[in-house]
# Entry
Amino acid sequence: MQTEIIAHRGASAYAPENTMYAFEEALTMHADGIETDVHLTKDHIPVLMHDERINRTSNGKGFIRDYTYEQILQFDIGSWFSSEFANATIVTLDQFLTWIKGTPLHAHIEIKNNKIDYPNIEAVVYEHICKHQMEHRTTVSSFNFSSIQRFKELSRTIEIAYLTSKMSRKIRSSIKKDPVDALHMKHTLLKRQIIRCSKQKEIPLRIFTINKISQMMRCFDVQVKGIFTDVPDIAYDMRCNWIQRKD
# Structure
């Protein structure tokens, strides 16, 4: 099995995260998929940004949920990274799906509702995926297990993954009781027991965020399903080296 290379918020080491610049760069770097994050604006438009607030990656301040789409569109979300990207504006989920549908890339959509549980966000995301006929090329994930359960009620065809940076007894019990299609886990959780369990139960295991070469090679060696990385070009080269070494 060849480990998938998933560009984390696009090629976010080279362009401002969750922008078309970062997505397009990831495509040129031979990524297999793109991970991005979805919030809802005040008028319920799904937009792509990691944080609940726009402070870190724009020239504005405040929560996404407190702005309409037209209002939030006025902010510059590229200059914080480099003046080269000064004209970057926030991307909608609709724009992202329109673009990725014309590529060979797989879409990994994280519903960002672990801190703000946006009402009906699962239904909004589901409707957009179906509108673009991307059901079989999309994985939906969340740190919010209740959100995953709500999404499962909407769809049995879209792959659903549980995101976690810790593996407590409560989480294990929840997953055992209500199985997910895949697990997206922090690299510190990549232990032998987890690897063995995922293979026995045939649950795809994807690991975040892998930027160090040593971590990449370990993931390739144990053959996880995928890695999320800010540097898809380096990951691609390392995977090519790993394949040549195995041959």
About this structure: The chain has one domain: 4-246. Residues 4-246 form a domain with the TIM Barrel fold (CATH 3.20.20.190).
